[in-house]
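Exercise: predict the structure of this protein bound to adenosine-5'-triphosphate.
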Amino acid sequence: MTSRTLISAVGLHKQFGAVVAARDISVDITAQTVSGLIGTNGAGKTTFVNMLTGYLKPDQGTITFEGTDITGREPRDITRMGIARSFQIPQLFTSLTARENLEIALGIAKSPLTRANEILAQFGLGAYANSVAGNLPEGVRKLLDISLAMVAEPKVLLLDEPTSGVASDEKFAVMDRVMDVIRAAGVTVLFVEHDMDIVRRYSDRVLAFYDGAILAAGAPDDVLNNAQVRQYIIGEPLPTTANAEAPHA
Ligand SMILES: Nc1ncnc2c1ncn2[C@@H]1O[C@H](COP(=O)(O)OP(=O)(O)OP(=O)(O)O)[C@@H](O)[C@H]1O
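Solution:
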């Protein structure tokens, strides 16, 4: 498998008053990989995602996508270039059916409305085609929301807590379906997730955020077994860490 760098972030810095939400973040994202972003609340995951998607402009640093500098570009330009996003709370028209939601997204993407059936089938949503989105179980709503993001055939998909609010016995089914679709389409994924079982199972690489910086990055087992990650992010103090200092504290 070739490992082509798709996104390259160099020296990203973002400050809100006294709060440093991103401190000197440099990371490369390889094409067609799945990166799990972990970190406690306020660690800087959303800030990083917002900078990649143009919702926030970094104070310093650059972001390159397929060799083009996209730093500070407008979100709609970045979306058009192939970076799509879904949110923690699905952005659906709750009074419309699943199919109608997809047809609206297809219309915006200037894609044939007849693709709705194919996309519903890909995401296992055929049985819900005529159900009103507001009445769908959370796992199905999440899948529908992600299917809307896939309408534009993005190269990169950013997912914000794809399993939050989903019943624990449905989480793996939701993620299995998402991963099947995105791997078949060759999409590169970054997903923010608090459930470490999901992170371990579905990530090729984990980026662990702490206090605005990347504390560790690498293979899931390496990062999730890293002593600092366990202590400061997963919240499992180690018996021998009584004298350890918090990074950046
Ligand atoms: N628009 C903003 N104005 C002021 N402070 C902000 C803003 N956005 C983020 N912050 C601060 O920046 C820090 C990083 O926040 P961020 O939302 O990136 O963290 P996060 O890791 O995504 O957390 P969560 O898991 O809660 O979503 C926090 O201290 C947050 O309060």
